[in-house]
Amino acid sequence: MTSAEIIALLPYQKPFLFVDELTSISENGVTGNYTFEKAAFFYEGHFKGNPVTPGVILTEVMAQIGVVCLGIFLLKDEILQLSAPKIALTSNQIDFFLPVFPGEKVTVISEKEFFRFNKLKCKVQLFNASKELVCRGFISGMIK
Amino acid sequence: MEKEVLITALKKIVKPYIQDEEAFENLSENTDFIKDLKINSANLVDVILDVEDEFDIIVDNESMEKMLTVKAALEIIETKLSEK
């Protein structure tokens, strides 16, 4: 399954699709990236006159690349017959270390903790273009 | 292993995931994890993984689907333990 095929199966679209490219994917994990548009809708309000990417959006980037893309890859055959997968975020625990500004490119590295009974739990890290750790934590979701 | 011991161990495992305290206090063999304790499906997976660690057993898909009540869980744990 190619990066483009996986992204095409994602149940998101603009302005809430936060995956540009997957650079590697296997049964054990995935690496991918996303570049924030300078005019993204959330910068207008977060913060007033001082645009910074909201933590919930960083969490969303980590979830879309690190958990949903990996989940689609792990389910491959089942999903191709069904079209769009059904997904739900079930828990996350993330620590944040650095801000991300409009136009920045971020890279997500996710490692599978387990995928059992349709629940996928991953250890996910997000880095900026200088390879500095921006945030990290654990995200779980149900996918089928 | 005695049933009382198993129930005590199971109660400890489910405690972090329950939403209904009263049903948890009154937990019996007939308690349903989802309907009574209001454990969601994602946390039910956590319960099963914790059961696997606690009793050093592997729960297969077929058993997982049946494991919806305390009684069913006890039966599955006892069966898996006897197979060891």
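The interface with chain B takes residues 88, 90-91, 114, 116-119, 140-142 of chain A (CB under 8 Å).
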